[in-house]
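Allow me, if you will, to draw on your knowledge of protein folds for a short while. I have a record of one protein: its chain in single-letter code and its fold written as C-alpha cells. I should value your view on which stretches of the chain appear to form regular backbone elements. Thank you for your consideration; the sequence and its C-alpha cells are set out here:
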Amino acid sequence: MSIFKAYDIRGIYPTEFNAEIAELIGRAYIEFTGAKKVVIGRDMRPHSQNIFEGLSKGITMQGADVIDIGLCSTPMSYFANGTLKADGSIMITASHNPGEWNGCKLCIANAVPISGATGIKDIEKIVETKAFSKVDKAGTISTYDISKEYGEFLNKFVKVDRKLKIVCDFANSMGSYEIAGIRKLFDIVPMYEELDGTFPNHEANPLHTATLDNIRKKVVEVGADFGAAFDGDADRCGFIDDKGEIIPMDLFTALIAQDILSENKGATILYDLRSSKAVKECIEDNGGRAIMSRVGHAFIKNQMRENDAVFAGELSGHYYFKENFTAESQGLAFIRLANLVCKSGKKVSEMVAPLCKYFSSGEINSKVADVKPILAAIKAKYADGYTYELDGFSSEYANWHFNVRSSNTEPLLRLIVEADTEELMVAKRDEILAIIRG
C-alpha cells in the first residue's frame, strides 16, 4: 500500500518511510509547489529527527530555504507557516499512529493543506520518476522558535476570572507544547507529560475511548473543572466533563460555538455532516449561521475559506479556527471551553446536558467486498427521505437521519444513525446494517 494517502504521507519506519524517501519527498515538494521558504516542525518520535534531516536535505538541494522550528504541535506548525509568511510547511508526524509509524503533513502558504487530490498524488509521481530540475544554488537551513509567539497568540483569547483546575493527558506527546504558553493561567494536573514517541502508557488517540479511562478517573479524583486528552501531534483533543464523562466531539463543537458566537453574532460555523442535529440547532439558537460540511480537514478548511467561517468542528476531534489560518488549534478549543465555564458560572456537565437530546449510534465501520451495490440498495430504500450526497449518502426523516460513506483509505463503509428515541435509533441502525452486512 502506498505511503501517499488522502490527507498526508504516512508509513512504517524504516521499511516504508525513512530519511532517503524523505529526501525525495522534499525535492518533489519543491518541484511541485515552487516554494522558496519552507517551515518544518516535528513531533517526538525517535526517528522524526532523522526524517527531518532527509527532508531538509531534499528541500535545500532544490534551492529552497528551510526554517526549522524544531519540536512542536501540528497547530504550531500551521501558525508558523502563516506568521512567518512562508511559502509552505511540512509537519513531521504520524499523528495518533503507533510509534513505529512516521509521516508528513504538507501545506502551501497560509497553512492551506495539500491533499491527495490537490498535490500528494502529483508529489508521489515526481518521487517515482525522480523528475527533478537542476538547481544552481542550494538553499539554507535556519532555526526559529515559534513557541513564544504562539503562546502570545493564545493568550489574546483567554477570558477567565479564576484559575480552573484542568487535567491534561498529554499521552507522552506534543500536547504539552500546544498549551505551554497558557499553562500558568490554569491549575494543570498533568498525565504522561514526558515526551516518548514509543507511547509507553497508551496510544495517543482520544477516539479510542479506552485510552480515556485514566483521565476520566483523574478528573473525578482531583475535582477538576474538565479534562483534555491530546492526540500525538495535538491537532485533535478529547474533552472530559467534571463528572468524568466523555463529551461527544460533535457536541463539543456546539458547546464552544456558544462562546465564539457571544463575540461574533451572525458568524458562520461549519459542522461535519455526521454531527447530531443538536449542533445545528445550538449554533442557530445562539445567533450563528450553521453550514454542514463533508468529512476531512482539506475539504473543511476549503469550505471555511469559501464561506468566511470563523470556526468548524469535526466528529473526530479536529477543531478549526479562522484565527489560526483556518487550521486546527487545540489550545484555542481548550481556552474557549475555559472561557465558557467562567462566563456561564455552570459546570461543564450542566452545559453539555441540554445538548444530549438525541440518540446516536456513533460511527460504525463495516468491511465490505464491493461498496457500489450496497450503496445503491441503501439509496433505493431510503429515497423517500430528504436525501443528499455531500459525502456518501444521507437521508433525513422527521424523527431520524443517517449517513453512510466509504472510507478514503480502506474497504469500509461507515454508518452513523441518530434518532429522537433510542428504540428508533437501534431499529434503524440494525435495519441499515442488515443491508450493509447482508
